[in-house]
């Protein structure tokens, strides 16, 4: 059966109106893939990483807004945005399933064409890590050639992390939070602080009394749970495709990625579970 969409009210003349493609700049998006080889699977590799960067752009948008909401004590709004970030991480995790359809011989056919380019150098991933508290200043070095990128990273380092913003809110609610943990934006990866673990133990021991902060804690755990899965999926995908070869960016490949699995973003929220 042939159906004319105009009979159902659809507009079909966009000569003078904005269309779907116009609004989304689809021509620019789908013309941004430029394989450097004749290998069939290079297109998969490019699209996988470009779509990941788009999801990370949205993550940064949501994390920045959530941080502002928490600072302004708009907690319901922040919860919605943090839940969205976790769902974005779920999409990033699912994307590894597509990349894993690429075999070692498929990847070898174009790997040399990548030169020294590597996901290790992703500016947006670094901004996400810095926003979440893994502020390793040595990781500024891969972006030193990019003045605009370096400026964005330095601007992020001048802001309190998401976790610091949560802890500042907790202090404002009368909880005992060490002043040195929230007085200045941190310039190093966050390490577990006993007093903060004790604060979370108090919250988790009586959720009804501290429901808002309890819910915030669970939102952070949920986010880190998905983030850890992303790292694990990254490790297993790389090992499946290249084994233990060095990464294109010069890292130890799988060995380096396995080391990153030990990073804890919100350690007190994980450690406190042993006490409950």
Characterise the protein shown here:
With 276 residues, the chain is an all-alpha fold. It has a single domain, classed as Methane Monooxygenase Hydroxylase, Chain G, domain 1 (Up-down Bundle), CATH 1.20.58. The protein contains twelve helices and no strands. It has helices at 20-24, 26-30, 42-71, 75-99, 104-108, 123-132, 147-157, 162-172, 194-205, 211-242, 254-260, 267-271. The chain starts with 19 loop residues before the first helix and ends in a 5-residue tail after the last helix.
What summary fits the major beta sheet?
A: none
Number of strands: 0
Query: What is the percentage of strand-forming residues?
Result: under 5%
What's the number of helices?
12
Rounded to the nearest angstrom, the distance between the terminal CA atoms is 64 Å
Proportion of residues in helical segments: 55-70%
- Overall pLDDT level: 90
Overall number of structural domains: 1
Overall 3D form = globular
CATH domain fold name: Methane Monooxygenase Hydroxylase, Chain G, domain 1
Report the uncertain regions. Answer: none
- What's the level 1 CATH class? Mainly Alpha
Q: Could you tell me the radius of gyration in angstroms?
A: 22 Å
Question: What is the CATH-assigned architecture?
Answer: Up-down Bundle
Helix and strand pattern: HHHHHHHHHHHH
Kindly name the structural category.
Answer: mainly alpha
């Amino acid at each position: 059966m042939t159906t004319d969409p105009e009979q159902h009210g659809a507009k079909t003349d966009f000569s003078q109106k904005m269309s779907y493609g116009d609004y989304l700049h689809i021509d620019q998006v789908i013309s941004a893939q430029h394989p450097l080889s004749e290998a069939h699977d290079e297109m998969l590799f490019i699209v996988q990483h470009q779509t990941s960067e788009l999801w990370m752009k949205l993550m940064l948008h949501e994390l920045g807004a959530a941080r502002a909401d928490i600072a302004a004590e708009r907690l319901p709004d922040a919860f919605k945005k943090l839940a969205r970030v976790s769902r974005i991480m779920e999409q990033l995790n699912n994307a590894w399933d597509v990349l894993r359809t690429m075999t070692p011989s498929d990847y070898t056919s174009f790997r040399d064409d990548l030169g020294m380019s590597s996901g290790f150098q992703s500016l947006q991933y670094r901004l996400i890590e810095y926003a979440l508290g893994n502020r390793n200043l040595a990781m500024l070095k891969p972006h030193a050639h990019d003045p605009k990128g370096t400026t964005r990273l330095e601007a992020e380092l001048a802001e309190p992390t998401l976790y610091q913003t949560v802890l500042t809110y907790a202090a404002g609610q009368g909880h005992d939070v060490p002043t040195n943990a929230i007085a200045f934006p941190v310039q190093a990866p966050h390490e577990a602080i006993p007093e903060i673990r004790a604060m979370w133990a108090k919250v988790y021991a009586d959720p009804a009394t501290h429901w808002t902060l309890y819910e915030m804690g669970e939102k952070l755990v949920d986010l880190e749970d998905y983030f850890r899965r992303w790292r694990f999926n990254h490790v297993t995908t790389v090992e499946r495709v290249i084994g233990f070869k060095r990464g294109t960016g010069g890292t130890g490949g799988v060995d380096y990625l396995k080391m990153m699995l030990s990073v804890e973003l919100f350690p007190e929220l994980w450690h406190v579970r042993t006490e409950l």
